[in-house]
Amino acid sequence: MLEVKDLHVAVEGGEIIKGVNLKLEQGKIHALMGPNGSGKSTLANVLMGHPGYEVTKGKISFKGKDITAMAPNERAKLGLFLSFQYPASVPGITISNLLRTALNARRKDKIPPLEFLKMLKEKMKALKMDEKFLNRYVNEGFSGGEKKRAEILQLAILNPDLAILDETDSGLDIDALRVVAEGVNSFMSKEKCILIITHYKRILEYIKPDKLFIMIDGKIAKEGGGELVDRLEDEGYGWIQEDA
Description:
The protein is an alpha/beta fold. It has one domain (2-243): 3-Layer(aba) Sandwich (Rossmann fold), CATH 3.40.50. Helices cover 35% and strands 29% of the residues. The protein has eight helices and twelve strands. The chain has helices at 40-48, 72-78, 95-106, 113-126, 144-158, 174-187, 228-235, 238-243, and strands spanning 2-11, 14-24, 29-33, 54-62, 65-66, 80-83, 90-94, 137-138, 162-166, 193-197, 211-216, 219-224. The strands form three sheets. A six-stranded mixed sheet has the order 6-9-10-3-11-12, sandwiched between helices. Strands 2-1-4-5 form a four-stranded antiparallel sheet, covered by helices on one side. The protein is globular, with a radius of gyration of 18 Å.
């Protein structure tokens, strides 16, 4: 579904991504792990088209289409989604208005208001979100767990083809983590694709990856099956650098 070839990315003249090659397959869950500063979040932002990052070399293809120079909104219309590590607050815009506007931007015909409200309430119920959130401004005054649930609510409503989840598990207690994981698992199907970026094993106990990529110093240093997660938990990242 998505392929990255020899990707190099710079920020303010400093190279952060140093030749990443990556394939994400339809119908599979992928995980990306690595130490702090390895370039994981930079990669997520570049895949979504963040203008603050300069692609100096390489190519990003999504569903067979070159999106390397494409704007973020165009990538979103194609079916690409990014759940932020640090979701921003948007004063003055309610969750319901944000989601209805975003959904209509992806549809040929606008969804009727009552149909949208019914769908939204069903998704919120599954995520154990109070309906009062409908009229709250996006992430304003939200706890860390509420912000992450709001991100997964966006995922459920927009129903993209590829979901990139950047440290969705950070700041979650065990109950919130379980609810968020259930939301992600319910989204997944043989037509979809997920990339989870995380530091920790715990979310991968609820969302089982088919493939794991390990990123070190701006490159994919190793890839393999989900069994790599246990070795990372036991031994850290030192053995990968030694193998290299």
